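User: I'm putting together notes for a lab meeting next week and I want to include a structural view of one of the chains we've been expressing. I don't have a solved structure, so I'd like a prediction I can at least talk through. The sequence is below, exactly as it appears in our construct file.
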Amino acid sequence: MRRPHLPAWLPLDPYVLALLGTVGLAALFPARGAAATVADGASTAAVALLFFLYGARLSTREALDGLRHWRLHLTVLACTFVLFPLLGLAAGGLVPGVLTQPLYSGLLFLCLVPSTIQSSIAFTSIARGNVPAAICAGSFSSLAGILLTPLLAAGLLGGDAGGFSLDSVLKIVFQLLLPFLLGQFLRRWVGGFLVRHRPVLGYVDRGSILLVVYAAFSAGMAAGVWHQVSPARLGALMAVEAVLLAVMLLVTWYGAKRLGFGRADRIAIQFAGSKKSLAAGLPMASVLFGAQASLAVLPLMLFHQMQLMVCAVLARRRAADPVGPEAAADRVAEVSPASQQPTGQAR
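Assistant: Thanks for the context. Below is the predicted structure for the 347-residue chain, given as structure tokens.
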């Protein structure tokens, strides 16, 4: 008997389901007392391990190979770290009528997170776009986000993310930057091992993030933060995020056209410039928000699933578009040495 499958246009990410299951586990059996201390310590170690692995797997050489397409990469970076934050700041006018302050803080944090790599590449490929450009743009965004996301969060979120206090700076340095730099430094010695054991390390990645989510939501349950979220507020948050995603998809597509990019490049810009990385955002939130991380990551988790569903439909529609002479030329131009090399960390 064949197992039933979900419709192709409804890509419910199994990992998102695992995250939701972890949230449910934390709601039913939150870590308290000594168990909470152990969970918090394990979560801190998991974040450091994640950023070490990010650094060890992210190939700086691949990113440098893509510098020839600097206009495209600057466009994606501007969408990710300029336009998204501006839209997030504009959404501040929805407080308190539509969004509560904690939910707005999470929405603004979502706007500061770097772009994805893996899904941007996948959707760009399906839509017959410039895949090497998507690889490099996602890599640049991830690399820049290691530094820019915590700094932007500290500056724009103020007290909600710890501000510029010495404690918050030390957390960023020791839990995020130093492990990442150590991974980059040791990459020449451990890179081969990581490539050979990529499937196993993928489970380490996912398991570490699940641990971070469990610790964050356990702390949230202990602090009673979930009493601040009503079904109406949750529905309003999803509506705001739908508008945010729609605006970014339209701006990245038509804005790239106004800037003179061809079809293949516009596809890469649209998918890399409109998406946010759950894998990078969750551990950062645990460092920046502490006990409030459970509410801070909720908008990001919802947006992640929303972007997968919408972009899957959009990629298939782009793939069905007729390919004219200009698009055919774009396809020839996208062939480069970078497309023949294995990618580094992809999230």
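A couple of points you could mention at the meeting. Confidence is low (pLDDT under 50) at residues 1-7, 327-347. The two ends are 34 Å apart (CA to CA).

User: Perfect, that's what I needed.
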